[in-house]
Amino acid sequence: MIHKAQEQRRSLEPQLKGGNDTVRLVHFLEEAQAYGAGRLFAISIIPPGGSIGYHTHTGDFEIYYILKGTAKVVDNGVEDILYPGDSMTCREGDSHSIENNGECDLEYVAIILYTEGKGE
Predict the structure, then answer these.
(1) Burial level of 54, CB count in 10 A (0-12/13-18/19+)?
(2) pTM over 0.90
(3) What span, in angstroms and rounded, lies between the C-alpha atoms of 13 and 26?
(4) Half-sphere exposure of 32 (CA within 13 A, CB side)
(5) Within a 10 A sphere around the Cβ of 22, how many other Cβ atoms?
(6) How far apart, in whole angstroms, are the C-alpha atoms of residue 80 and residue 88?
(7) Cβ neighbours of residue 43 under 8 Å, at least 6 residues apart?
(8) How crowded is residue 15: how many other Cβ atoms within 10 Å of its Cβ?
(9) Digits of tens for pLDDT over the chain (120 positions)?
(10) Which long-range contacts (CB under 8 A, 24 or more apart) does 21-26 make?
């Protein structure tokens, strides 16, 4: 199945999980097309100063892969900086947040997969 760029759904998420500004998402795969594997398959774009608030994953886990910009992340209370090529996994039961602390848009692949048996 081919998903042309102009056909991919775009969405806006203001103050996502209590964060700042509006996160833009480009959904390269829809949940209904993922055979029960997960619920988010997107490029996430956060403007400078924007963020996704600190939250806990229950029943799923999330992977970030940084494409462009710099991200200040908090992973279970531990703060770090991620650069293009870096990745982060937030496992089920863990908590995290992400903030664009750079001067250009932060762009990253965001994938949320269900834990074992969740999608069945």
Answers:
(1) middle
(2) yes
(3) 11
(4) 0
(5) 14
(6) 10
(7) 25, 26, 28, 67, 107, 108, 109, 110
(8) 14
(9) 898 999 999 999 999 999 999 999 999 999 999 999 999 999 999 999 999 999 999 999 999 999 999 999 999 999 999 999 999 999 999 999 999 999 999 999 999 999 976 544
(10) 21/46, 21/47, 21/49, 21/50, 21/51, 22/47, 22/50, 23/50, 23/52, 25/110
Tokens 């799923």, residue? 60
Q: With CA atoms as reference, report the closest residue to 75 among 59, 57, 60, 101.
A: 57
> Which strand (E) or helix (H) includes residue 81?
strand 78-82
